[in-house]
Specification:
Helix content is 26%, strand content 33%. It is an alpha+beta fold. The strands form two sheets. It has a four-stranded antiparallel sheet. Strands 3-6-4-5 form a four-stranded antiparallel sheet. Strand 1 and strand 2 form a beta hairpin. The radius of gyration is 22 Å and the shape is elongated. It starts with a strand and ends with a helix.
Length: 202
Amino acid sequence: MSLIYRVENDNFRVSIYQDEQVDSPRDWDNLGTFFAYHRDYMIGDYTPMNTEQYSSWYDWFENALGHEKFIALPVYCLDHGGLRVNTTGFGHADPGGWDSGQIGWIYVKRSYAQLEGMDEEQVKDVLRQEIETLDQWLAGDVYGFCIERREVCPECLHVDYHLVDSCWGVFGSDVTKNGMLDYMLPTLVNETDLIKQLKEGW
């Protein structure tokens, strides 16, 4: 648990930490199924078998599963000083392709999407979000916070901090978008200086 950012006034102290104990988002109840192969890491939900028999990932998907039965997106990985994943590729960061490439597919059966009343674009939006969340987890872009009340002893002026609230497993560092600030507001409703500092980010 590494301290990332801290703000304080006469009433409260707010500390934001990197959450290093959160489970992989692939353990959640996801819409997509993620098949992936990486020689060193288990990244996907499942590891496909016999991929060496196929000329490409598309060839594997077409012949091993039947591409027409699924709504799918390719998943790419950049393995350089850490792992990053996306659905668009890493040509901007690795133009030579030495440290990146496709590692699999994330997909949903078309029949299941129909049962859920979802069209193809809606499904793909969810699949992109699932991979973006996985990327945040791989990058350590997951946080928690503690709100502590600041109390000063009137006799010796010693300062103590008493935990008021905390929350963990928050994905993304923008407190205005990740829900963190909304969670804090009932406690910090009158602390406009702290709210301003938190909105400015770290």
